[in-house]
Specification:
Layout lengths: L2 H9 L12 H8 L6 H14 L8 E3 H9 L6 H4 L2 E3 H19 L2 E2 L5 E3 H8 L3 H6 L8 E4 L5 E6 H10 L1 H7 L8 E4 L14 E4 L8 H16 L4 H8 L3 H16 L17 H8 L5 H6 L3 H10 L5 H28 L5 H37 L8 H21 L11 H15 L31 H4 L1 H8 L2 H5 L7 H7 L11 H8 L3 H29 L1
Parallel strand pairs: 3-5
Antiparallel strand pairs: 1-2, 4-6, 5-6, 7-8
Helix pairs in contact: 3-4, 3-6, 11-13, 12-13, 13-18, 14-17, 17-18, 18-19, 18-20, 19-20, 22-26, 24-25
């Protein structure tokens, strides 16, 4: 064992251990640096750490964007250019990559103006070094730096620390050690001196420190929640991990709460949230149709042609859907806060209501994004000076991802209650697309043949790429159902549990997703009578969707 490795353990934060990446794309990125020397590795590491604070968990990122930010070179590898990763996965994988690049390069001299030690950060926040290690994949990467005494210690960039502190202020409160002071958050001013504290962050004091096994419980909760999202029966999970069914259910609820805890409030808060009939009014305004399903069955060039023909016709309906989208998100955020403030055990019905609101908000965002794609596509092609289907294959797929993401941003920032002249959905998404094209590198210098890229002719475009987490994951049942052919769907219509299935997931158009309790009222039977049958049906639907996806991929 090397001296550096010993020092890492003594420092208490082992951030450079060799771990697998969450995404295959990051493994491909890592290979690009396999033969780089220390100087080049240092340059790439600086680029990665400079870009890291810009990564937001709720967004999706083309891998080519990440490669450009790290290396300054536009990716030429088709395997990389065609891939998009979620912000959550990119934060975790970029932290792993930073650790590996730093390990290969070796510790660089410590710069106290730019970095803060893990020990100092733990003291500033009043948390343990083990907590810092747990938060690595959530946006707190550590690397080794060489100090004047010759010892290598774990450090983190101050700008990254500041971003993490502002993003997870409530988490820091809960994790802080108890002190004699009352519970509070004291702002820490910006420092640039060598002995400075965390830049732009907050000092946490007075909160309860998690128990010794809190980290293990959280990891177990995430594993159980992930297994349940893949529809593995709770009894099977209990047998596998050697826990009781009651423990598995508690862990599942805890993992699901963690998954939705970081959901932000809507950009535009809808009025009349507290009206007694608000749910009924927004429920009518936010009824979903079959437009998204229709577009989901189209191949690439058909999809583009339909988008060009799909102009915004009834903007009032789009405004109503966006208002309902904001209402559902605001209700979900209120429910999350109530769960955290309640202090008692997590109740399934409370969490399920939050998840159903998020599912509804995500489906409305998807529908509004579809409505905004026509003006968004026009603005994108005007910015490039050529049609999207005239781009090289890899660039065309990245362009679609950028377009979806930018239009989604434009929808979320659009205020449906504002009635001033010139304020419309088309203008909002057009501005969002223009800003993204101007900000992203390489789009104004496109080269390559202007012929149609025939290699992507058979691909389908999934609008769910425009939906941030955790809404996208909560919409998985909707995605599985939509991916099935009409013939395949018909095989499930007579299945036990089909009626509550379509009501629960908003597939009974015009309709919307419903909670377990709401679904029970609508079908006239309590959830205990049909929830197990719906899960069994959903398991079959997922299996059929996976089989169809494999067949479709092989055919194209």
């Amino acid at each position: 064992m090397s001296v550096a490795a010993n020092r890492v353990r003594r420092d208490g934060v082992d951030m450079t251990a060799d771990r697998r990446y969450r995404t295959a794309a990051m493994s491909l990125v890592d290979r690009q640096f396999a033969f780089a020397g220390p100087k080049v590795l240092g340059k790439f590491l600086d680029g990665l750490l400079a870009a890291y604070p810009e990564i937001e968990p709720a967004r999706n990122y083309p891998v080519s964007w990440f490669v450009f930010r790290v290396t300054g070179v536009v990716a030429r590898d088709d395997d990389l250019e065609a891939q998009v990763v979620s912000g959550v996965d990119l934060l975790a994988d970029a932290a792993s990559l930073a650790g590996r690049l730093a390990s290969r390069r070796g510790p660089a001299p410590h710069d106290p103006r730019v970095e803060i030690t893990a020990t100092g950060l733990a003291a500033d926040w009043g948390v343990s070094r083990r907590s810092l290690q747990r938060w690595r994949n959530d946006g707190l990467p550590m690397i080794l730096a060489r100090f004047p005494d010759g010892v290598a210690r774990s450090v983190c960039r101050r700008e990254i620390v500041s971003t993490f502190a502002s993003r997870y202020e409530e988490r820091l409160k809960r994790a802080a050690r108890p002190t004699s002071a009352s519970k509070r958050i004291e702002p820490v001013t910006v420092h640039r001196t060598p002995g400075a504290s965390v830049v732009g962050s907050s000092r946490i004091s007075g909160s309860r420190r998690p128990g010794r096994n809190a980290g293990g419980r959280r990891r177990a909760a995430r594993l159980v929640a992930r297994a349940r999202s893949r529809l593995i029966p709770a009894t099977e999970i209990a047998a596998r991990i050697g826990r009781s069914l009651a423990v598995v259910r508690r862990l599942e609820l805890a993992g699901r709460v963690d998954a939705v805890a970081a959901v932000p409030p809507p950009v535009v808060t809808p009025p009349n949230l507290d009206r007694p009939d608000a749910a009924e009014v927004f429920g009518v305004a936010g009824a979903l149709d079959e437009a998204v399903s229709t577009f989901g069955s189209l191949r690439f060039f058909e999809w583009l042609a339909q988008i060009r023909d799909h102009e915004i016709g009834d903007e009032e309906s789009d405004r109503a859907r966006i208002a309902a989208m904001n209402f559902a998100l605001a209700r979900a955020r209120h429910g999350i806060d109530a769960i955290h403030d309640g202090g008692g055990p997590i109740r399934e019905r409370d969490l399920d209501l939050v998840e159903s609101h998020l599912r509804w908000s995500g489906m409305l965002l998807e529908r509004a994004t579809l409505a905004g794609l026509n003006p968004g596509l026009r603005r994108f092609e005007q910015s490039l000076g050529r049609r999207l289907d005239q781009l090289p294959t890899a660039r065309a797929m990245i362009a679609v991802d950028l377009l979806l993401d930018a239009v989604s941003d434009g929808v979320r920032s659009f205020d449906p209650t504002r009635r001033t002249s010139g304020h419309g959905l088309a203008r909002s998404v057009g501005l969002a697309v223009s800003r993204r094209v101007a900000r992203e590198p390489g789009w104004t210098e496109i080269t390559g043949a202007k012929r149609r890229p025939t290699s992507i002719e058979g691909r389908r475009i999934d609008l769910l790429a425009a939906i941030p987490e955790p809404m996208r994951s909560l919409m998985a049942p909707v995605r599985w159902w939509r991916s099935l052919s009409p013939t395949r769907r018909s095989t499930f219509t007579e299945a036990t549990g089909f009626a509550p299935f379509v009501v629960r997931f908003g597939l009974d158009v015009p309709g919307r997703p419903r909670s377990l309790v709401e679904t029970g009222r609508l079908v006239g039977r309590p959830p205990t009578r049909w929830s197990g049958k719906v899960e069994a049906l959903l398991r079959s639907v997922r299996r059929a969707a996976v089989i169809d996806a494999v067949v479709d991929r092989d055919a194209n």
